[in-house]
Amino acid sequence: MRCARINGVGVYTPGQVVEETGFSLDTLRYYERIGLLEPVGRNAAGQRRFSEDDVSWLGMIRCLRDTGMPIAEMLRFAQLVRQGEHTIEDRIALLAEHDRKVEAQIADLRQKQGGIQRKIQYYKDVLTMRDMLPDCEQTS
Questions:
Q1: What is the pTM of this model?
Q2: Whether 31 contacts 69, CB under 8 Å
């Protein structure tokens, strides 16, 4: 994605951020309104202009959201980040707990995937058996 550079700092339009992050404009506004995203800068005409830090932060939020972290926990994480380095241990604990939940989801999905794979093999075996049987024609 290309962004304008103002005083050496990357500036992104809302459309560019939507393209980069996959979040809708409504979601970006919502995240800003609830405090998950810090207030976005504006140009002289009042149009939102996102910084490289904003886009990077939204990438982390995308990761957390896509792995099932509830908004309340994302807000807690954002609060800890904004409070400074003395919260790093708390951030680690929050992310480690989320990581454990993600691992459990992966294990659950792997187990379910095994069931799907067994059913695929069952159907393949049915087809193989059907193809091995001689054609039985009815005689009258």
A1: 0.78
A2: no
Using alpha carbons, list the distances in angstroms from residue 100 to 55, 69, 106, 118, 127.
Answer: 26, 11, 10, 27, 41
Taking phi over 0 as left and psi of -120 to 50 as alpha, with beta for the rest, 70 belongs to beta
Strand partners, 11: 4, 51
- Read off the pLDDT of residues 2-17 as tens digits, 9 standing for 90 and up: 444 443 458 899 999 9
C-beta separation of 105 from 68 below 8 A: yes
8 Å CB contact between 105 and 99: no
CA-to-CA distance for 127 and 131, rounded, in angstroms?
6
User: At a CB cut-off of 8 Å and minimum separation 6, what does 65 contact?
Assistant: 74
Which alpha helices (DSSP H) does the chain contain, by range? 14-21, 25-34, 52-66, 71-83, 88-132
Q: What does the block give as tokens for 113?
A: 């995937």
Residue for token digits 């800890």? 80
Length of the chain: 140
Q: What is the pLDDT of residues 97-110, one digit of tens each?
A: 999 999 999 999 99
